[in-house]
Batch of 3 targets.
Target 1
Amino acid sequence: MEHELSNTVKGLALAHGADLVGIVKVSDLPEHAENITKILPSARCVIVVASHHNVAALRSDNNQVAQFDTIYTYGECEQSVHKTTRYLMSEGFPSVAVPAFIPIDMAEPKKGMQGEICWRRAGVKAGLGSYGENGLLITKEFGSAIRLAGLLTSAPLKADEALDEDFCDHCMRCLEVCPVGALSEGGKINKKLCGDHIFAYGLRCFTDLFHTLTNKPAREIEEMCTSHALRELWQTFMTGNYYYCFKCQSQCPATKAPRHP
Ligand code: B12
Ligand code: SF4
Ligand code: SF4
């Protein structure tokens, strides 16, 4: 029963947008146990899914196509876990789909820098891949050009084994290509340096603008309200596009692009 149900849900996840799927027991994620129990007290297993990016879009010099590929790829992960959750519910197992980057605590001291469940860690334990020097989960199939999401379920599923292989060849190219020097050996990251760069038109830009607007003469306020930064901010709000860098995913040699025929 455990085995059969696991195969069925994996098949469903793959049919609805996931490219890779793995299962980890909640008891094997002790650092997330409290958060998981808050979301679903009866949770026994976590299903982790990965959907792959279009590498050509990630490597494009036009950042907006990479941003949109990210939105679609997040959508595929989320569709996959949402549909699989519905099936598990219909079979009588309370389950909750957990999106790719929420729930996340925006209050002090975490300030949006720590997810309730770390999908990289859960993905490694569910046998999806290994950790890279770029701080990301690297898979055999798609390198680190993937997005991750998951679901919590009370269903008794068969857990997968973590893989023995290391898919990062430790070439350190990711450290070299990072435009702001945010990465260092062992997958360490300076979150502020990276965050300021990838969210160039994010919350910091918004608050800076807000601060600057106070005590300014009317003419300067007018200039700011018609500035390029404000238009980029508007675009961010309207489209949900806010990443301005994909280098550590796109330039990693484990991230393979399909060959031309
Ligand atoms: C907050 C956050 C950020 C923050 C902080 C990043 C960070 N590394 O923690 C900022 C804004 C800087 C950021 C940047 C980026 N992010 Co981000 N981010 C998240 C988020 C929402 C939470 C991560 C978190 O909780 N971090 C805090 C703690 C847990 O992480 P930590 O301090 O690094 O500790 C962990 C590691 O040390 C790891 N670990 C343990 N042993 C080892 C050993 C090695 C060798 C390594 C490398 C790691 C490792 O385990 C620890 C605990 O889990 C996740 C989604 C999620 N819920 O998982 C996405 C996520 C990690 N981000 C992602 C991506 C792609 C990016 C960016 C490329 C931006 C972009 N263009 O999308 C950059 C890459 C930065 C990088 N190289 O790490 C993807 C990663 C996909 C993948 N292949 O792994 C995720 C999983 C989003 C998703 N759902 O797909 N992100
Ligand atoms: S570029 Fe990729 S393969 Fe090379 S060290 Fe970084 S993560 Fe590993
Ligand atoms: S997303 Fe860009 S800035 Fe952030 S660590 Fe990767 S290469 Fe560096």
Note: The first helix runs from residue 2 to 15.
Target 2
Amino acid sequence: MSERLIDMRSDTVTRPTAAMREAMLRAEVGDDVMGEDPTVNALQERAAALFGKEAALFVSSGTQANQIAIKAYTQPGDEVIADALCHPVRSELGAAALISGVQLALIPTERGVYARAQAERMFRSTNWMQPKSALLWVENTHNAGGGTVFPLEALDGLRALSQDRGIPLHMDGARVFNAVVASGVAPAEWGKRCDSISFCLSKGLGCPVGSILMGRREFIARARRLRQIYGGGWRQAGLLAAAGLHALDHHVERLAEDHANARHFAQRVSEIRGLRLVYDDTQTNLVFLDIAESGMKADDVSKRLRAQGVALAMRGGCTFRAVTHLDVSRADVEQAAAALKTALA
Ligand SMILES: Cc1ncc(COP(=O)(O)O)c(C=O)c1O
């Protein structure tokens, strides 16, 4: 067994770099529940300015950002219009139902992207027995959709729809910086098309913890109250915010390397017999693989990979997800592709 694990299960597995740890050590801190942590305040102000939003809130996770946003915009019994593959449906333990008491009107999509006409069909009539359509939800990049960048024209259509119908549009931008780098569309361009938007620091940006939720001042004030209710108020969180500021300075442009490595990996593994790429284009840092044609069990392949020092995420059935990130080099993806070939031989 190799000493070092090439861990391509997720971009959340990165460990803070030495320079990031230095920045954390130097952080000035205060009590953030009292709004007095200067480093948290600096991070929030910087993020809000970057995305053209009035205010921002530093929260502990992407899930917390999502659940705060859903709760802030809805009443129990309301409906959220989203794509059927979105993170709150697949990977948040039914929290939208549990916490906010909402139901989700889910649009079937190929890669998590949908257009105005599809969303329009999901709106309920004004019949008093129907739930209220309260929120439009998009995910960018789309995780289960294979790291897809939400096309700007589709987003423009949804923006117009949300304005016509008078309901907010929220973007789960856990990996929106991957979208920024892949598309060249600036953060403020995404920000201005949505009422609110989040991003994760703990994914491709390489921080240990944290996400940012941004929107109008009143929305963020409500979000702050909800964060407290969920036990998410934190005190000297400036240590973590310092990592976030460091990441915004040093880890955004380099996402292009992750994208190039993901494309390289996809190209290499597409040559392996018995393996199929689930999505034929690799837009950002996520690659989905299907090994059904090999006739092997995912469990067995995973064990064979581990024995060669490689970890991919098992996504159910015969599907794996491979993710490139700060701790995965070009040589690592070469090695991972070779290990996969051996495991499927
Ligand atoms: C699109 C998307 N939203 C939200 C989350 C949740 O983030 P966290 O793991 O920080 O709760 C994830 C995590 O992978 C994600 O991919």
Note: The CA atoms of residues 45 and 205 lie 18 Å apart.
Target 3
Amino acid sequence: MPSIIIARSSQEYRAREDALAVACAQAGWPVLMTPHLYHLAEASPIWQDVTALPPSVVIVSALHPRPAEWLLRKHGVAGMVLAEDIRTLDALDDVVERLRQFGHPPCADVTVREVHASVGQRWYPVIDSERCRHCGQCAQFCLFGVYAMIDGRLTVRQPDRCKPGCPACSRLCPHGAIIFPLYQDDPAIAGAPGCVMTPDPQVVARARTRLQAKAPVSTPVTDELDALIDELDALAQRKD
Ligand code: SF4
Ligand code: SF4
């Protein structure tokens, strides 16, 4: 029996989120409504509510399904995950029918529980761990110390040091594993269905050349990174 998580997004989708919550509860699934999960602080106790749910989870959020799933997995959800994007949901009846195929609801009365927290705007990479091969190129590339290689495995150690709006390392990953779910200019970087981010060899070569002379740093080198991001974006656009 799955639990439904409906992550609040913006005012635009509020009525749809509420209607879906009621429809799911009426159909017999317990519903947990949370703030926007991407913006939720790493230390928020709401993550404990999420990971305490039964093993099968349906997440409905204003994110593409792939980043939504990896966000949950990063925070410890280990069972089956079905992710739905509230922005593209069709008729609620169809959605409820799809959920029925994922797992049958119990026949008891269930309620909608909403948990609240004040959330700021965050910006950080979400890693698709099925694709990541732990090559470490992103960790080498990032000047802000967002990533670390620990025991040969890539970790997003300091997500909030990521530069807002910067998607540069996603263009370099050889396996399309780095997702910036809120990036609007390229659906592949945002992890949209059917889109795979493939590295642009020209961009990779240019980035390597620019960074070759640089020793790892512990403090942001904003001007250098800004210039590099502009250069990568310009190169990527020329390829489009
Ligand atoms: S560049 Fe891609 S594959 Fe390599 S460690 Fe980073 S995310 Fe993983
Ligand atoms: S987007 Fe930029 S700042 Fe953020 S992790 Fe990647 S390289 Fe570092």
Note: Residues 125, 141-142, 144, 146, 162-163, 166-169 surround iron/sulfur cluster (ligand 2) (CB under 6 Å).
